[in-house]
């Protein structure tokens, strides 16, 4: 447990540090700061569980420091150690979350022992590693180069190793699962260091060690020989953890199958499929997914969400073109999004996508009950819905008389051509509202309904909500400007 003593009087700092260390030699590690500002800087590189705080200090006093702790919403237990017994001071400190208010002239070894034991009892329900570590938060928010001046050996003095790996895992490891050394948590991942002496530096030995160590999954960094590289190793481990998505084992090592982190290959393959998907024969729908699968397997992007969103965009494109139950399309696409985001591995994702295409798209693309002329017109509308202006333009494309084609289209689809185009525009507008941050007016222009009042009226007729309310109700995690 790390404790920080904040006091501008060196004699008080030194006495508290020596006394606490002597009372709990194997449990506590005590650091010191001379004022609140210095203490805040130390909080950024080490996770403290208790702080002893003087009230009157230069630069930042104890009450201002308490306010900052409150703002950061940390799990640190603050204890005021003051020479002042005024009630106003005590009331202000308790207001900002002080665990206790202790007068310096009453402080002795027994009081400190009891106080620390009370704090330990207070923390017992949450003695698992905290939800976020300030040191790790700094590492992930700053560049690794920003930490070259930090002596990480002092931040984690109990970890002594000539070379080490950093490990990211989704579960807190048991205390008896040595030799893992816990350094903190960040975004629901737990980070540990391990001396390379325990598992060597060969991939086969690493795999054997981690496979036998615990049932959890591990993302493992490269091996580093200096604690100056700790920020790099932590980010390495985080990337490896993300890339477990592509692994058939419970471990992924940054030193295995290292691939330049370019996603251009994947984006190119997906864009090609989306551009041509409406023209594929049924047998090509699955066959032409293979280059995309291969690109993902080759690159193994750290951003798993990029991969999931790429496949989701493909399915959105196919369903907008082929799915017969258009009235239920929005609910169907939302259901597909949830299923894709729930996938825990790349194999599971591929299986889901291919099964959806087989079940909902494959047969419809072969025989959806429409004549070849109407199918061809639907493909044309799907490609050019936002620029097509006349029925004659589509009729010319399918080589039919405009009047005959209009009657044929209405007979087979139940919609006039103009009604079908408008409905398709509204479907695309709904997709843009759910998946982008574009303004309502920009979305209306994108689907070529420039009159915003008319657009809002027709949109409400179809979905029962104004566009803005629809976006709020169906908001998803996309931030891209364009999904298709």
Write the layout of secondary structure elements.
Layout: E1 2-6, H1 10-23, E2 29-33, H2 36-43, E3 50-53, H3 62-72, E4 77-82, H4 87-95, E5 100-103, H5 109-123, H6 134-141, H7 152-155, E6 164-169, E7 181-186, E8 189-195, H8 203-213, E9 218-220, H9 230-242, E10 251-253, H10 264-276, H11 282-287, H12 290-299, H13 304-322, H14 329-341, H15 346-366, H16 372-384, H17 391-398, H18 402-413, H19 417-435, H20 440-446, H21 452-463, H22 467-473
Parallel strand pairs: 1-2, 1-3, 3-4, 4-5, 9-10
Antiparallel strand pairs: 6-8, 6-9, 7-8
Helix pairs in contact: 10-12, 10-13, 13-14, 13-15, 16-17
Structure overview:
The structure is a single chain. This protein is 52% helix and 10% strand. It is an alpha/beta fold. It has four domains: 125 residues, Rossmann fold (3-Layer(aba) Sandwich), CATH 3.40.50; 120 residues, no CATH class; 103 residues, no CATH class; 102 residues, Homeodomain-like (Arc Repressor Mutant, subunit A), CATH 1.10.10.60. The chain has a five-stranded parallel β-sheet with strand order 2-1-3-4-5, sandwiched between helices. Helix 9 links the parallel strand 9 and strand 10. Helix 10 runs parallel beside helix 13, helix 13 runs parallel beside helix 15 and helix 16 crosses helix 17. The radius of gyration is 31 Å and the shape is elongated.
CATH architectural type of the largest domain: 3-Layer(aba) Sandwich
* Strand-residue proportion: 5-15%
Name the CATH superfamily assignment of the largest domain. Answer: Response regulator
Q: Ranges with pLDDT <50 over ≥5 residues? A: 124-132, 255-261, 476-484
What do the pLDDT scores average to? 76
Cα gyration radius (Å): 31 Å
How many domains, as an integer?
4
Q: Largest beta sheet: what is the strand line-up?
A: 2-1-3-4-5
What's the number of helices?
22
State the shape.
Answer: elongated
| Major sheet size, sense and barrel closure | 5 strands, parallel
The chain-level structural class is alpha/beta
Our measurement of the CA-to-CA distance between the termini, rounded to an integer number of angstroms, reads 51 Å
The CATH class assignment of the largest domain is Alpha Beta
